[in-house]
Amino acid sequence: MPTTTNKKVPKLRFSKYLNSAPSLTKTKFVEIFNFSNGKNIKQNEASPHFRTPCVRYGELYHMYGEVIKEIQNRTNIPNEDLIFSQGTEILLPSAGEDPRDIGAASALVLENVAIGRTINILRPKKPNLYDPVYVSYYINSVLRKKISTLARGSSISNVYNSDLRKLTILLPTIREQRDVAEFLVKLDELIELLEKKLELSKKYKKGLMQKLFPRDNQTNPELRFKKPDGSQFSDWTYTELGKISSSFSGGTPTSTNTSFYNGSIPFIGSGDIGSERISTTITELALKNSSSKLIEQGDLLYALYGATSGEVAIAKISGAINQAVLCIRCQQDTYYLYQWLKFSKQRITSTYLQGGQGNLSGAIIKQLALPLPCTDEQEKIADFLSSIDEKIDEQERKLGQAKIFKKALLQQMFI
Q1: CA-CA distance, 390 to 397, in Å (whole number)?
Q2: Consecutive sets of 10 residues in the chain, 415 residues long: mean pLDDT of each?
Q3: What's the pTM value of the predicted model, to 2 decimals?
Q4: Rounded Cα–Cα distance for residues 348 and 362 (Å)
Q5: For residue 241, what is the DSSP state?
């Protein structure tokens, strides 16, 4: 039977509950849930254009969070071959490549949704035992790591309903559960809104860049700035990047010499391009005893190979670079070149990294045909795109703060 404990209370509660008895009910999953599984819906049997709304287990990883309020896919499988929701389910994938993913719960608050195979389905044994949205957030915040430890298997990990039956949960009153759930849903809606605004801003910038830079075989772009008197700037020209810039790449200190590391000089690899944090540092001795090169704040850094091939950044710090990073010092507007390289990333990598394999090189980058407006128009383009980047950075900052705020709340609202 459920037991009541007064020893543990959440650090953070709504004010209207502070004067009520601060008790939580410790309950076993097996006491409040009925357990079942869905039926198979193959990948080719699901599409947004089919008839019956459905949820497949792989979608729980990528399409849905704690609450499923809108269905992305549908199926044409006959109803008699499906398992349908009642709008009170909690879904957990029962298999995955990474055990850490398996403990992710989603509350399905919609009725008549077909539930696919490889999904553990938790339903209430009777009405008003718990709020499914509250329990979904609780599982993801408190029990996810515990569930991942229950996973069995080598290449594919599995967690079964028989494993979940052993878990326990601490529940406040159903009224308090619903208030907490409603608050967290609103917070997630805010986060989702911030994510959409950020995505729209990035699409807006991408669309502008397609008009601000000329397409292949065109001299001038579709969208141009004008002089203060309203007249047109001169036509654009093309030149090899190497002709208007100097560049160099670095090297890596001997990895067996541990004394070279944990120094005071930031050591920048291709994976650090665009990152706010540098994970490795080297000593002055390492710099002297390797081909690593120093870069200065404001230099243009280009990732030549690795997972970040084609990424570009303007250095915010001074430091040293390895052989996978090309430092470019340009005679033209650095921010203009930065924006053009970002705009050209897909074209460059698809041309020189066939099938995503191979490496770029400093020689390839130097030979790139760079479209060049006059200096004044370069500055206008750079300033305009910089202002958009500042707005995008601010949106990313607000989104990051909202996610940190949510994480902190969950740590204090659940125990």
Answers
A1: 10
A2: 59 83 82 96 95 95 93 96 96 85 91 96 94 96 92 84 93 93 97 97 96 88 94 95 94 76 87 75 82 90 90 92 92 94 92 72 94 96 96 96 95 92
A3: 0.84
A4: 13
A5: G
Contact indicator for 177, 151 with CB cutoff of 8 Å: no
> Looking at the domain 3-172, which fold is it?
Adenine-n6-DNA-methyltransferase TaqI; Chain A, domain 2 (3.90.220)
With tokens 């924006």, the residue in question is 339
Compute and round to an integer the Cα radius of gyration of the chain.
Answer: 28
Q: How far apart are CA 77 and CA 45, in angstroms?
A: 7
Helix segments in 86-171, DSSP class H:
99-102, 132-138, 144-149, 161-164
Residue 93 to residue 56: CA distance in whole angstroms: 9
Cβ atoms < 10 Å from Cβ of 334: 18
Q: Distance (Å, rounded) from C-alpha 53 to C-alpha 48?
A: 8
Q: Which residue is associated with the tokens 């199926």?
A: 75
Domain ranges in the chain?
A: 3-172, 173-228+375-415, 237-372
Domain spanning 237-372: CATH 3.90.220.20: yes
**205 contacts 385 by C-beta, under 8 angstroms:** yes
Q: What is the enclosing helix (H) or strand (E) of 399?
A: helix 375-413
As a three-state string, the secondary structure of 305-359 is CCCCCCCEEECCCCEEECCCEEEEEECCCHHHHHHHHHHCHHHHHHHHCHHHCCC
State the residue for tokens 């005071």.
264
Tell the CATH superfamily of the 173-228+375-415 domain: Bipartite methylase S protein (1.10.287.1120)
**CA separation for the pair 193, 30 (Å, rounded):** 37
Residue appearing with tokens 């326990």: 168
- Alpha-carbon span 368 to 119, nearest angstrom: 51
Distance of CA 195 to the CA centre of its chain: 10
Which helix H or strand E contains 239, and what residues bound it? Answer: strand 237-240
Distances (CA, A) of 303 to 15, 326, 363: 52, 6, 13
